[in-house]
Amino acid sequence: MKTINLLMTLLVFTMLILSIRAQTTDTIGGTNGNDNNQAGRQCMNLITASASGTLQSIGINLYNNPSNIAVAIYSDTGGVPDALLGNSIGTAATTGWQDLTIPQAPSIVMGTSYFIGWVSDSSITHIYYNNGEDCYISGAATPYNNWQSTFHYTGQFGEVFNLRMTYEAASSTTTSTSTSTTTSTSTSTSTSTSSTISSITSSTISSTTSSTTSTVVPSPLTTIPVNQGRSAGIALLMFNFLNDVPYSMILIEVLVFMLALGATRRITYSITVTAFAALFLGLLSGDYSSAIILTVTAIPFMAWELFHRKH
After folding, report:
1. Are the C-beta atoms of residues 29 and 130 closer than 8 Å to each other?
2. Which of 57, 215, 294, 296 lies 20 to 30 A from 122 at CA?
3. C-alpha Rg value of the chain to the nearest Å
């Protein structure tokens, strides 16, 4: 059973490390002015990707919202929009930033230029912009969000609308391989071919092929069994995955939790440290909603320890 628990833990951490992704947002334009466009005329501005990844959404900063809007992304050929890569569905507009999902999820390549743009079904929809490079416009489309497979522009003017594209940018990938065997119910022997991994179990995993023997001592009532701490960590992973917390923040939170648990063997102390780490990450990245979700995760763990103290 200890061997299975150890292998499951290593598998979870390996899969987590392999799937680390960071969310990247590139923004153009500004809020020096606001302007409208004729209903159904699609307007495209140039943007260059700062990283590689998969496009999730295109955002538009609206001055007012009397209409429906849609956004799209085109390839860049010779400085003009060319082939359609993806587009949103028509959506009721709201004032301020509005991010529309791109279901085709095209791949974005670092250093490559694209054209992102917008269209409205109303001529009185105003979008924030800065003066700058040309915005390429099409003829009036019917219906308004009927995007051309190849963009044909009929004119251009020097306004860069306040737009942004958000995508998941893949980070570095780490792999690990480990093996483990158990010799009896009271002792355990572990060997590993990967770099040393700090574990909250009583076994020692060495970076060279070796074997160690350790006696398992029952935990006192004020601490928690190792398998319960591991299960708590996995529950933490699943809760945050379901709430769309960025993977990089989840990884940092889990590592903090496991290190604190390994040092103190107390969930309460570990959660306190983890909650502060989550708040710090949220304040640092500006992702306050994820910070709140990570911090609220402390509640079931508090209940977990209180339950096991009474039982």
Report:
1. yes
2. 57
3. 26
Q: Are 48 and 109 in contact, with CB atoms under 8 Å apart?
A: no
What lies within 8 Å, CB to CB, of 231 at 6+ separation is: none
> Residue 289 pLDDT more than 50?
yes
Cis (ω within 30 of 0) for the bond into 300? no
pTM over 0.90: no
- Quote the CA–CA distance of 201 and 62 in Å, as a whole number: 54
Residue in the structure block whose two tokens are 């799937």 = 19
Contacts of 54 (CB under 8 A, 6+ apart): 105, 106, 107, 108, 167, 168
Cα 63 to Cα 30, 32, 275, distances in angstroms: 12, 11, 37
Whether the per-residue pLDDT at 278 is higher than 60: the answer is yes
pLDDT band of residue 300 (cuts 50, 70, 90) is: low
Crossing angle for the helix pair 226-242 and 298-310, to the nearest 10 degrees: 150
Question: Range with the lowest mean pLDDT among 6-20, 62-76, 83-97?
Answer: 6-20
Helix (H, G, I), strand (E, B) or coil at 300: helix
Alpha helices in 91-186 (DSSP H): none
Q: Residue 108: left if φ>0, alpha if ψ -120 to 50, beta else—which one?
A: beta
Coil, helix or strand at residue 5: helix
**pLDDT at position 52, please?**
93
Is 112 in the same domain as 139?
A: yes
Domain edge (last residue) among 217, 250, 283: 217
Q: Is the pLDDT of residue 193 over 70?
A: no
Q: Which amino acid is at 181?
A: T
The number of folded domains in the chain is 3
Q: What is the DSSP letter of 218?
A: P
Give the model's pLDDT for residue 214. 45
User: Do 151 and 210 belong together in one domain?
Assistant: no
Evaluate whether residue 306 is within a structural domain. Answer: yes
Whole-number Å distance between alpha carbons of 99 and 27: 12
> Which residue would you say has higher pLDDT here, 272 or 124?
124
| Residue 125: both structure tokens together | 């929809």
Q: How close are the terminal C-alpha atoms of the chain, in Å?
A: 22
